[in-house]
Amino acid sequence: MQNILLIVGSPASGKSTISKAIAERSAKGVHIPVDELRTMVQGGVLHPGPAWTPELIHQLKLARQTAANMALRYQEADFLVAIDDFWDSFSQLQEYATLLDQPNVIPIILKPELSVVLARNHARKHPSEFREHMDDGIRMIYADLDKQESALNAQGWLILDTSNDTIESSVARIFALLETFAD
Question: Where do the DSSP E strands lie in 46-182?
Fold first, then answer.
C-alpha cells in the first residue's frame, strides 16, 4: 500500500512545490493542493484573513474532507499521495483526524527558519497590505508551532527544517523517511 503524505506548514514554506515534486518523482503519484480545492468555489469563496467566520471554517473543513477522501481513493489505486495544506492554528487540522488514523498516512510539517520563510514570501509578493497580512499570518503560525512542537512530535508529526535544502534535497529527505517507515 502506498503512502499518503500530509505536508503542511506556513505560507511560503515550500509545501506545494515539494508536494508536487514528490508526486512527479513517484511511479504513480498525485498532488492534492487544498488551496486549489478551496478556490474551486466560485460564488462566495472565503480566504483566511483576520476574521475567521463560521463560513470560512466550513469551507476549510469541506476542502480538507474532500482532500482526505480523494487521497484514500488514490491510495486504493496504488498512488503515492501528497496533500498540501497550511498549518491551521485555529483547527489544529483536526479535520484530518480520521485520515491520520489510517495506515500509511505520514504527517509532515515543513518548518524552515522563520527568516527564510519571510524572505520567500517577500520574493513572491510585492510590498502591499496583503503581504504584510501574510507576514503576520506566518509569524502567528510559527508561534503556534513553536509552542506545540513537542506535542506534535509525540502525535507522530515529522517536523522538518528545510532552511538549507533545495527542492531536490527536501524531496530526497522525505523519500528517505518513507524508506524507514517501509522497514
Answer: 80-86, 105-110, 158-160
Here the cell at position 88 is: 491551521
CA 60 centroid distance within chain: 13
Residue 164: partners with Cβ closer than 8 Å, 6 or more residues away: none
Report the chain's C-alpha Rg in angstroms. Answer: 16
* This prediction's pTM: 0.95
List the pLDDT tens digit at each of the 183 positions of the chain. 899 999 999 999 999 999 999 999 999 999 999 999 999 999 998 888 778 899 999 999 999 999 999 999 999 999 999 999 999 999 999 999 999 999 999 999 999 999 999 999 989 867 777 778 889 999 999 999 999 999 999 999 999 999 999 999 999 999 999 988 776
Domain residue ranges of the chain, discontinuous segments joined by + = 4-182
What is the topology classification, in CATH, of domain 4-182? Answer: Rossmann fold (3.40.50)
Q: Which helix (H) or strand (E) holds 86?
A: strand 80-86
